[in-house]
Each structure stands twice: as structure tokens, then as C-alpha cells.
Amino acid sequence: AAGVIQSPRHLIKEKRETATLKCYPIPRHDTVYWYQQGPGQDPQFLISFYEKMQSDKGSIPDRFSAQQFSDYHSELNMSSLELGDSALYFCASSLGRGTSGKETQYFGPGTRLLVL
Amino acid sequence: AQKITQTQPGMFVQEKEAVTLDCTYDTSDQSYGLFWYKQPSSGEMIFLIYQGSYDEQNATEGRYSLNFQKARKSANLVISASQLGDSAMYFCAMRENNAGNMLTFGGGTRLMVKP
Q: Which of B45, B46, B102 sits opposite A45 (nearest CB)?
């Protein structure tokens, strides 16, 4: 079965540079979520989109922005990168935005970002 | 206050034995979902099992089952007949249905299966 695709899988950037992470949800899934997992930490919710509109917002820094496009793929744009942004960034997708409570979020393999 | 607490940072289990990973949660919502995910050393996050707050039966998926005790606010994962490939980090997560659709994760339990 098709899974969530994330690109790139690994990314190395310098401080103050920008980065763009891409996410392609499972076909027919209409909701996309972004999570950040620091080294040795649990994943933290950043932001989600349902039907191309922002749905919920978590602890996403103002330097980050994200959007969902007409084909449902999503991009996370990160500017003025800091050392502390080094983390594993997950995208997840679900069918439905969770109003029934049963919509399972399926995670992609993650993008490992290292800021030097 | 922590919404999801996993009190076992690390656990060992003998191959072929069963193991229980603990998870307690804190919410005032009546409607919520509890999820378990497995994260191998390669890093991906793999969905294992789901339990809804209104589900009367404990969830089961193959070798995984959930011991859901609503009054105690616990949702422990039971893995039967452990395999070497079960060695990984396991995260318990909750979605509070009246608080958006994000998952809140616990700190995780690292399970190591001994041959």
C-alpha cells in the first residue's frame, strides 16, 4: 500500500539559511500534519491542514510556514535556521480531520534536518 | 501537567515472551482517541493500534492488544510472543477530539528483546 512520502530524507543547512520540506500524503487522504522530533524527544505537533486550509496550529515558530496545495501535498518552509532546528521532521496524513476521533494518522519516514 | 505519561524509559523482554508497556493519560474530554506507535532505530513512526474512549472492547491487532482501563486512565500496550524485530521505541499518543486533531505523545519506552 502507498505510504506518505517525504523529501528530502536528509538535509544539511547552515545557520540562517532556509529549507523547504515536502510531503506527499497517502492517496485520497485530505489532512496533513507536521511534527518535529528533537534528539531523544517525543514528536511535537507543529501544524495541520485539512482540504488545503490550516486546521490546527501547535508550537510552530514564526520563522516557519506551511501550506497544502491543490493536489494535497504540503510544504514546510523554514527560514533563518537555528542550531536548535536540527530534528527529525515528520509529515503524517489521514482521511478526515479527526472529528469522529477515529482517523488514524499515518506517518512518513521523516526528513532529518541538520543545521550547522 | 503531562498529558501522556510513559513511566518505563527502557525495558527488556525475552524473545517469545509477552510484555506490557504502560501508558497513563490525563484529559477532561469525554471523547478522545489513544494510539500506539513504534519507532525503530531507522526513525520511521509506525502505527500499531487505536482505542477510542467510547470503545467498549479492548483493541487488538495481531500480536498487539490494548489493556484499556478508562476509570484509571490507562491504555497499556501488550505485545505477545515478542520477536527480535520488536526492539524499538514505543510511543503512546492521545488525540482529544474537542481540542483539535493533533496528537500529543508520551516520552516513549525503549523495548529491547533479548534472544
A: B102
Q: What is the pLDDT of residues B1-13, one digit of tens each?
A: 679 999 999 999 9
| Burial class (CB within 10 angstroms; exposed 0-12, middle 13-18, buried 19+) of A1 | exposed
Q: Contact B89/B38 with Cβ under 8 angstroms?
A: yes
**Alpha carbon distance A52, A63 (integer Å):** 20
| Residue pLDDT, tens place only, B51-68 | 999 998 999 999 999 999
Output the nine-digit C-alpha cell for A77.
Answer: 518552509
Select from A55, A107, A109 the Cβ nearest to the Cβ of B101: A55
Closest Cα to residue A89, out of A37, A42, A22, A44?
Answer: A37
Which phi and psi (to 5°) does residue B5 adopt? -120, 125
Q: What is the rounded CA–CA span in Å between residue A43 and residue A56? A: 16
Helix (H/G/I), strand (E/B), else coil: A77 = strand
- State the nearest Cα–Cα gap between A15 and chain B, in angstroms: 24
Task: Report the gap between the CA of A80 and the closest CA in chain B (Å).
Answer: 26
- Name the minimum distance, in Å, from the CA of A17 to any CA of chain B: 25
As given in the structure block, the three cell numbers for residue B63 are: 500480536
Is A56 close to B102, i.e. CB distance below 8 A? Answer: yes
Written as nine digits, the cell of B11 is 525495558
Question: Measured between beta carbons, which residues in chain B are less than 8 angstroms from residue A91?
Answer: none
- From chain A, the residues in CB contact with B43 under 8 A are 88, 109-110, 112
State the DSSP H helix or E strand holding residue B38, giving kind and residue range, or none if neither.
strand B32-39
